[in-house]
Amino acid sequence: MRQEFLPFSTPTIEDDEINEVVDSLKSGWITTGPKVKRFEDAFKAYVGAPYAVPLSSATAGLHLALLALQLKEGDEVITTPMTFASTVSMIILCGATPVLVDIEPGTLNIDAGKIREKITAKTKAVVPVHFAGQPCDMDAIFALAKEFNLTVIEDAAHAAGTEYKGKRIGSFDTISIFSFHPNKNITTGEGGMLCTTDEALAEEVSLLKFHGMSREAWKRFSATGNPNYEILLPGFKYNMMDIQAALGIHQLPKLDGFIAKRTEIAEFYNAAFADVAELARPSYAPYDQRHAWHLYTPLIRIERLTIDRDQFMAELKKLNIGTGLHYKAIHHHPYYRDTLQIPAGAFPNADYASDRILSLPLFPKMTMDDARDVVEAVKTVIAKNRK
Ligand SMILES: Cc1ncc(COP(=O)(O)O)c(C=O)c1O
């Protein structure tokens, strides 16, 4: 058995990130400033977006993008049940009703073929989530958006570096929102980026992210700045700080290397679990794409075992293997179950995945020995608890 606990994820922070943060701390300018601008420009260039707005989190980005739609009570926004709470909570907090569409059983992405039947006269937007870093079927989603005049807001929290048919997520003619939480493919501690092709939207989000203020602080307080400012609309405090961007500036050039390492481990897992009937491996979508492998999320076939998924995770922990849970389906949480009043069995694929999914360790600093320990532990737990 492994001697040290292997967490399911840990960020890769090296001397260049640390030195850049120290430089910010010593510089006298630690909040939003020139390093945020540098990170914004670098990220924009990487994904191929004309406009990008750095933020304190992806949740903030979802909030502002949905607010910009000026949703009214009764308006509907379509999304997936296989996501983090904030995707759905931001729809609710903007006054609209989330309408869930079941997922595909293999990729766990929203089933684009089932969206049409959920579109009504009240539908205003679709929020696809690129689950685990694998792109949704965007051609199908864009075709529906065009037909029904819907806005597409891509929840790209998992998708920094993801590509769909040769184009990076972030470059499409829409709005996409990335997360730089420490588990994500690159991190700024906490942080997010909203990318868009819409200049007016980028301007509005930029205002909303910082009190609706006409001029950001670093432009007011620099040697050549003017301390005066005007409030153009009531806004939030969702800005990214320079000490966060200091991390991002050095993480971004490493992203492709991080993805290569994640892919190597994911493919190792896929090969190692090929003959394990008690586990269903995540599958690749059939179209041309680059999976960013933010998560490796097999489904444990609990019907073949004497233990459930939570017990499976507890057994792995006893063997010093950490796991994550991405996700218990949205409608399995008490708040959404009660408010959305989803009838039992409405989302069979999400229900199935929700009870069986777990995230195995996957991060660039992992060694192949670590990955072998994970495979061995998974096989040990299965062998011990097979029906
Ligand atoms: C699918 C999805 N959407 C949104 C978020 C929110 O990201 P953040 O933590 O940056 O607010 C997350 C975070 O885990 C996520 O996984």
TrEMBL record:
Pfam families: DegT_DnrJ_EryC1. One of its GO terms (molecular function) is transaminase activity. One of its GO terms (biological process) is polysaccharide biosynthetic process. It comes from Geotalea uraniireducens (strain Rf4) (Geobacter uraniireducens). This is DegT/DnrJ/EryC1/StrS aminotransferase. The keyword Transferase applies. It comes from the Bacteria. The lineage of its organism: Bacteria, Pseudomonadati, Thermodesulfobacteriota, Desulfuromonadia, Geobacterales. Belongs to the DegT/DnrJ/EryC1 family. The active site is at K184 (proton acceptor). Keywords: Aminotransferase, Pyridoxal phosphate, Transferase. The keyword Transferase applies.
